[in-house]
Amino acid sequence: MISIDIQKKLLTADGPITLSAQLDIQPGEFLSLFGKSGAGKTTLLRILAGLTSPDAGVIRVDGETWLDTRQHVNLPPQKRRIGFVFQDYALFPHLTVRQNVAFAADGRHDTAFIDQLLALTGLDALQDRKPDQLSGGQKQRGALARALARRPHLLLLDEPLSALDAETRLKLQEELLTIHRQLGVTTLIVSHDLGEVFKLSSRVLVLERGRIVRSGTPAEIFAGDNLSGHFRFTGDLLDIQANDVVFILSVLIGNVIVNVIATQEEIAGLRVGDKIIVTAKAFNPMIYKLSSFQGETD
């Protein structure tokens, strides 16, 4: 288990805040951090990785102390079993894909494990290429394989798919799930994509001004306990068309566009681009706007 209790003062665009996070992460959990820009999500990841020092706190991983400010313990990044995948890949440009992955293995010549990672990420046929010969999705697969080569206790993903096109992003989400199921690495991701959070996470933490204000499954956090129905989906509102006395909403759910009939009252306040929930009881769909999380960027 990973136990975290840290505090750090931050200066954000909305003024000074204190990041104060107390949480336990269970082995094999896939945890998402969700919240507005400046809430402290990336700073929390950097503190876990040892790239940023907190003002005070304790981090213990499987019985090992990585950080204890009172005892003046603060292990450097290279001594923490962390895999970190950034949005910008951060691959070594002069090394091949295989050399990048092998470098992260920290001197171990575990050829079989490197082969496994290259196969899992679909890079076995591209292992002799350098980063400038790869697409964006292939580079991110390389960054993921390199992070996993350290056999980390904790995999940190800082919006790793946000720079990719929608089709590549959906494919990589599926691959992340497959890798997580096969390797069982405890994973913490920062993401603003609701579909991504729903698909990947077993638990979501919502940060507001440095504080964890909600914790639960994606359905509990975003759909709310007060909604009931036979099905419930979250999607992006692509279009609103008037049709006699009703309206036709085109909603992107995953990679599928669904048309939903709505009334004048249901579309009040909705705009193209909004995140919405579509929930149905029997054959009567009901539409709810996800106004609390609309338009967030990091």
Structural account:
With 298 residues, the chain is of the alpha+beta class. It has two domains: 2-222, Rossmann fold; 227-293, OB fold (Dihydrolipoamide Acetyltransferase, E2P) (Beta Barrel), CATH 2.40.50.100. The chain has helices at residues 41-49, 97-104, 111-120, 136-148, 166-183, 194-200, 218-223, 264-267, and strands at residues 2-12, 15-25, 30-34, 56-61, 64-68, 73-74, 82-85, 154-158, 187-190, 203-208, 211-216, 231-243, 246-253, 256-262, 275-281, 284-289. A six-stranded mixed sheet has the order 7-8-9-3-10-11, with helices on both faces. The protein has a five-stranded antiparallel sheet with strand order 2-1-4-5-6, covered by helices on one side. A five-stranded antiparallel sheet has the order 14-13-12-15-16. A hairpin with a 2-residue loop joins strand 10 (203-208) and strand 11 (211-216). Helix 2 (97-104) packs parallel to helix 4 (136-148) and helix 3 runs antiparallel to helix 4. The radius of gyration is 21 Å and the shape is globular. The two termini are 29 Å apart.
